[in-house]
Amino acid sequence: MAEATLETVPLDRARVLQWLQTYGVYAGVALLVVVNIVITPHFLTAENFRTQAVQVAPVIIVALGMALVIGTEGVDLSVGAVMALAASVTALYLGYGLLPALLVVAVFAAGIGLANGALVAFVGVQPIVATLALMVGGRGLALVLLPQLEDLRNPALASLGSGDVLGVPYLILIAAVLALLVAFVVRRTTFGRQLLAIGDSRPAAQLAGLPVRRVLIVVYVVCALLAAVAGVLATARLQASDPTSLGNLMELSAITAVVVGGTPLTGGRVNIAGTVAGAVLIQLLTATLIKHDLPPSWTQIAQAAVIVCAVYAARGRGKR
User: Fold this and answer.
1) N or C: where does the chain have the smaller number of CB atoms within 10 Å of the terminal CB?
2) What is the pTM of this model?
3) What confidence category does residue 34 fall into, taking pLDDT thresholds of 50, 70 and 90?
4) Which H, E and C letters describe the chain, residue by residue?
């Protein structure tokens, strides 16, 4: 009898951990919604849901790129700097029109991503070190280009930040379309399968003849471009370019969303739906604490607790 009991306990714990790995982020979102319905006034209003969705959209977009990088067993710490750089470049070239400004932003972002990818794929620098260098250098370049906050008065940019289709803001639509596109690439394309194979075992992928270096470079370029999109959308929403603060700690928010959403840091797997849910979870948690007048330090502590719980639940998930 005692032996049967001892055998059942690990089994139950394993089942609980497996359930948390698969559904924990969705349960967390549902729990936060229920708690807010009970304790937060005016939570169940269309305006509140719209506000929350608009605020989380840039985080989702950055987290999508981060999920791809983490899927290759890497990490990109430069995404916040790319957002700031996108804001600076947008302000400098907006006088030529929105489209030319966006093209220049894409060139700058692709350059950052190309540098990250080349350092990782060709030089062999660890991703955290390579992207840390671009994180510092990118933020510095953004401040050189635009040392201070600048108000932007452009009808096209304003429409991008506050416009909507049938009541759904452009920011939400763009985030949703990008999430579906990235999910399709990961699940249904050869590139997605190559990405996951590289994250699962880079030496094995090289022996199998996969274009490891090319895939890594493309992944880092895509991550930088998505961060630039988020930077432009955040700038459009604020109608101001502020490279000193835009994107600060965004890399941590993106990594948190990816990890909480079920993508292991050891690579070989990407959970896009979970990443979106993870970003929503962090947004709801932050909004809940703010609405109840708790200081920002409590938000950071709460996010740290969520990360610890997610990493604990993920133990063994990424082992090969």
Assistant:
1) N
2) 0.91
3) very high
4) CHHHHHHHHHHHHHHHHHHHHHHHHHHHHHHHHHHHHHHCCCCCCHHHHHHHHHHHHHHHHHHHHHHHHHHCCCCCCCHHHHHHHHHHHHHHHHHHCHHHHHHHHHHHHHHHHHHHHHHHHHHCCCHHHHHHHHHHHHHHHHHHHCCCCEECCCHHHHHHHHCEECCEEHHHHHHHHHHHHHHHHHHHCHHHHHHHHHHHCHHHHHHCCCCHHHHHHHHHHHHHHHHHHHHHHHHHHHCEECCCCCCCCHHHHHHHHHHHCCCCCCCCCCCHHHHHHHHHHHHHHHHHHHHCCCCHHHHHHHHHHHHHHHHHHCCCCCCC
